Amino acid sequence: MEYIYLSSSFALTILGILWLTPLTHKIGLTDSPCERKHHEGSIPLVGGLAIHTTVVVVALLLIPVSIELLYMLIAASLVVFTGALDDRYDINFKIRLVIQAIAALIIIYGADNKLTSLGNLFGFGEIELGYLSVPITVIAFLSIINAFNMIDGIDGLAGGLALIAFIAMYFTTHNAVSDSTQTILLLFIGSLLAYLMFNLHIFPNHLPKVFLGDAGSNLLGFVICVFLVRYTQEPKAILEPTTALWFVAIPLIDMVTTAVRRVKHKKSPFFPDRTHVHHILLRARFSKEASLLIILAISSALAGAGVIFYTINLIPHTSLLLFMAVFFIYSSTIGKAWKVSKAISRKETLKKILLKSAGSR
Length: 361
Fold this sequence. Notes:
With about 350 residues, the chain is mainly alpha-helical.
């Protein structure tokens, strides 16, 4: 049955993208080059819409509709609709955050899916959240949603990172969850594989290039958070909360380090710029393909570590210490790489100016 779900979501996402692409140019749902975006031409922002439509249709047709599934689909649809509006009209980030928080509250109160414990983080027993449960869950949703949105800067990156997270969740939960949960995970895996085929433009003479859009990156972050919250908490706890961190390590760490860097420079954490890890690699003269492979390889290694820690039942505080070590190494390395990439960029700019000046003579 797994192959049926994978192949059906793969095929339907392809059909959805091909059907939606011509419509995007009519309604202006495209991404055009600008100071921060250096791609060529106007690219349709239909990846997220196609993935969402595929998962909703197949889920309603093949999965028994439970209250949890229904609320997840409703909340995810709200996130996707808001993201699509942002893709089209560039709405204020405060409005986006409010609607994302509402989607999180739908999950919290509708599906009774929230963080009630952080686990035995320090070896002294469970850390119960009590009255902080709801606000911390909302913060977790906002963090992961926007982590995937912020890192969606080069072809294949957000989709590839989400694919790694979904695969890691599938392998760590598939023996202990319902068939419905397995199906949802497989549907996202199949849809992401189809989307990446378009996004990476593997068949340029036959398939159009498309982007996820904010609708897609927000959707992926939201659904990943739903599953991580659900299966790190009782009564359905399978994973330790610390294990969940490893599955979304790169988007989460990159968001935090980038936000801290922006605040240090007296800018809003949500100020759009080109200071994410992929931008740093590009400024350091790595190609887009090399940058993508480096980041996905690191993410795969970290998610793989999470799977291993789950398998060997590593104690939570050891997992947390290792994660904090990775966080420190990553942030320190990125900080140095940022300075190096800036120096390289300045030299390249100076070289171009000198060559242009010499040519004008």
